[in-house]
């Protein structure tokens, strides 16, 4: 893997090597440590290295990523699930497991690979799970992942920025990891992300970092049930602005930090009677 040393720092390179060995051998990291006679097919390894040298993310090269204990198909049509989004999902799961009412109806806005609703449905099977996305190719990937994990999820094609978007259902919980990166922040991002992951799922479309939160707020006012909750992943730069936005419209909003101690989650409650 010396050929990829210029693309990753030392810790990243070690992690990449482990992932590749696990993928090619079908063995866990512990099994690899105990296997003194491991043999790897050179041709497939060389193909992986070549793709990495072309700045393609390892997850797209392998065709999957792990999200908690779920193996999910990923490709250029969906974002690679991040640890922070797994944290968001676990917050939702913890909330649901404390609720006595059942069944609850949930909606994931901008579902991408379907990581959020699939994990929720696996952990809390009695919820009714819906997932919306504007990208038809992403919905195809999400549907494949849901079928693979035998989770019943209703996928919906729709644009949250469409002010006329209206669904028949109302929801007890709305979840979203919407696009929240401004164009100015592109300069700080790795080319591997910019060249491969879908810009539609990363960046706001106008010069307004709250663009999607405003749209989710408007949508929720028609589609959230009394006492309902919104669980949103946010840009750490705009936590207080997002809090102020929701609290101006009959909501309470708590900003929580992620594992890196950055403002990352907005937990919103609908207060209207």
What does this structure look like?
With 273 residues, the protein is an alpha/beta fold. It folds into two domains: 2-54, no CATH class; 66-270, Rossmann fold, CATH 3.40.50. Helices cover 38% and strands 20% of the residues. The chain contains ten helices and nine strands. It has helices spanning 10-25, 29-34, 42-53, 58-62, 83-98, 115-123, 136-148, 191-196, 211-223, 239-247, and strands at residues 64-67, 70-73, 105-109, 128-133, 153-157, 171-176, 224-233, 251-257, 263-270. Strand 1 (64-67) and strand 2 (70-73) form a beta hairpin. The longest helix is centred in the N-terminal third of the chain and has 16 residues, at 10-25. The chain is globular, with a radius of gyration of 20 Å. The N and C termini lie far apart (60 Å). The model has no long low-confidence stretch (mean pLDDT 91).
Layout of helices and strands, plus pairs?
Blueprint: H1 10-25, H2 29-34, H3 42-53, H4 58-62, E1 64-67, E2 70-73, H5 83-98, E3 105-109, H6 115-123, E4 128-133, H7 136-148, E5 153-157, E6 171-176, H8 191-196, H9 211-223, E7 224-233, H10 239-247, E8 251-257, E9 263-270
Parallel strand pairs: 3-4, 3-6, 4-5, 6-7
Antiparallel strand pairs: 1-2, 7-9, 8-9
Helix pairs in contact: 5-6
CATH architecture of the largest domain: 3-Layer(aba) Sandwich
Radius of gyration: 20 Å
Give the averaged pLDDT, no decimals.
Answer: 91
User: What is the terminal-to-terminal distance?
Assistant: 60 Å
Helices and strands: which structural class?
A: alpha/beta
CATH homologous superfamily label of the largest domain: Vaccinia Virus protein VP39
Listing every helix as H and every strand as E from the N terminus to the C terminus, the arrangement reads HHHHEEHEHEHEEHHEHEE
**Strand order of the main beta sheet, please?**
5-4-3-6-7-9-8
């Amino acid at each position: 893997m010396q050929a990829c040393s210029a693309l990753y720092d030392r810790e990243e390179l070690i992690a990449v090597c482990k992932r590749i060995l696990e993928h090619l051998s079908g063995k866990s990291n512990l099994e690899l440590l105990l296997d003194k006679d491991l043999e790897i097919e050179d041709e497939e390894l060389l193909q992986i290295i070549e793709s990495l040298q072309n700045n393609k993310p390892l997850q797209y090269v392998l065709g999957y990523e792990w999200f908690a204990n779920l193996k999910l198909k990923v490709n250029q049509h969906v974002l690679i699930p991040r640890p922070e989004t797994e944290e968001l999902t676990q917050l939702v799961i913890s909330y649901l497991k404390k609720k006595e009412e059942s069944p609850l109806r949930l909606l994931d806005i901008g579902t991408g690979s379907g990581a959020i609703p699939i994990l929720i449905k696996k952990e809390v099977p009695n919820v009714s799970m819906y997932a919306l996305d504007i990208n038809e190719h992403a919905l195809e990937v999400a549907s494949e992942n849901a079928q693979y994990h035998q989770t019943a999820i209703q996928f919906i094609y729709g644009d949250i920025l469409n002010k006329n978007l209206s669904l028949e259902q109302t929801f007890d919980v709305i979840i979203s990891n919407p696009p929240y990166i401004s164009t100015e922040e592109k300069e700080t991002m790795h080319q591997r992300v910019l060249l491969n992951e879908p810009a539609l799922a990363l960046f706001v479309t106008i010069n307004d970092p709250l663009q999607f939160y405003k749209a989710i707020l408007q949508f929720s006012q028609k589609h959230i049930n009394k006492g309902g909750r919104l669980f949103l992943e946010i840009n750490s730069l705009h936590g207080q602005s997002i809090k102020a936005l929701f609290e101006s419209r009959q909501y309470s909003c708590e900003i929580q930090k992620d594992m890196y101690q950055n403002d990352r989650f907005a937990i919103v409650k609908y207060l209207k009677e």
